Prior knowledge:
This protein is 51% helix and 0% strand. It is built from three helices and no strands. The chain starts with 16 loop residues before the first helix and ends in a 10-residue tail after the last helix. The mean pLDDT is 80.
Amino acid sequence: MTKSGIGNPSPKAGFSYSAVERILAAQARPRSAMEALVIEAREQLHEVLREARLAPRSTAEYQALLDEMAKHDENDEGEDNEPDEPVA
């Protein structure tokens, strides 16, 4: 161990609670608000990325929508889209 009490202790050695408090008081610094936000955002992003991915949809699922749009377009072509003449 070094004079400051911080070093590479043997695997069997441990620090007392008061020693850990002294070490942290000497070395630790509080996080800024930006650092805290970055860490929180990173954790949320990792959580989202670990979620199950959605499987791609079959194109057959969209066929009904295409058919409906085609019917709608056919109906629009048959209608007169010009404004009516005013009745005198």
